[in-house]
Amino acid sequence: MSNGKHPPEWQPAALPKDAVFASSVMDGVAGGHDGLPGQQSGATATPVTRRRHLTTPEYVSGVRGGDRTILARAITLIESNAPAHMAQAQEVLQALLPFTGHALRVGITGVPGVGKSTFIETLGIMLCERGHRVAVLAVDPSSSVTRGSILGDKTRMEALARHPNAYIRPSPTGGSLGGVTRKSRETMLVCEAAGFDVILVETVGVGQSETMVRGMVDFFLLLMLAGAGDELQGIKKGIMELADALVITKADGENRLRAMTARADYARALHYLTAATPGWKTPAMICSALTGEGVAELWDDIERFYKVTSASGVFAERRRQQTRDWLHALIEDYLRSRFFNHPAVKARLSAVEAAVVAGTLPVTAGAQALAQAFEETANG
Ligand SMILES: Nc1nc2c(ncn2[C@@H]2O[C@H](COP(=O)(O)OP(=O)(O)O)[C@@H](O)[C@H]2O)c(=O)[nH]1
Ligand SMILES: [Mg+2]
Questions:
Q1: Does residue 250's CB lie within 6 angstroms of at least one atom of ligand 1?
Q2: What distance in angstroms lies between residue 115's CA and the mean position of ligand 1's atoms?
Q3: Share of the chain above pLDDT 90, in %
Q4: CA distance 51 to 169
Q5: Is residue 291 within 8 Å of residue 255, measured between CB atoms?
Q6: What is the distance in A from the centroid of ligand 2 to the CA of 118?
């Protein structure tokens, strides 16, 4: 705005273009109402109220009591990388641990666009209406880059997000795969302690996230498109062998017949693969999140899976193995980072690399030399 002369509000209707006025209008203050730089001038900006620090017992009773705000804050605490937060997060988890483990944990994977979020919304609403309490977690190891698509997903599950029995949490932005894994697993435990009895975990990224989510759920669901070709869907035999059910999505309208054909093809293919879970024959099914066809049947199968594997002990043993694997993965992460960040290793690594590449040093001897350098000063 200029500080020049402006026409007054009560100007006559018809004026010559170059009319001159005696009144001047002062510029408003730039920025916010208080004249400070306008960082918060957006209509959506929320006022910054400094939230009171919660004690560990407050977190625990809030989560146990079903307080959504405290649940969200507990998850934020778990997702924090600040050392002080990590220490308190572990205290909270320790206290919540006796109340965890009572949910059925279901992982849902498939290429982007296959219909995971839409399927989760349809299944989630059905379960909520049956009285279940459903928590939906997204897991995306690349989420620091693709944050936008996750927010998009959350709006796609709009009806579910509004349901009082549901809770939707987007993927943590964690950087490393190990970081995202830890945060997702701990978030799942907190949701269980809050009384959610079904946890649906959507893999958002492609690639690594499948095995990672398989490692934290009881039942793993692979969604597929009819007629898209295995190559296009990134479906390797390996991923089919992780699945406890294979579901052809979007089986509605003109696509329904093609979905039936694909179902039969996959059922045949499954015949030759090792089942993901001992004592469970991985079925191939069709479903439509739009018409709802196949969704209730799939849930029946998941419940049957729970009964069969609980009776055989496979269910509990898988969970024990997953917990052991998680412990080992954390130890390996810790050791790897200690090793590669160690000054003696850092000082020698590139020379050893060059020597083994040049063929002047055997690889084993190179690794031994670095390990020795590490151990000699590891406690220093
Ligand atoms: N016809 C039909 N379209 C669907 C169905 N499920 C999802 N879609 C559509 O497929 C697109 C991708 O779905 P989305 O759930 O975001 O897939 P995601 O990337 O796997 O989470 C969206 O445009 C949906 O509306 C379905 O059952 N039938
Ligand atoms: Mg999605």
A1: yes
A2: 4
A3: 62
A4: 20
A5: no
A6: 7
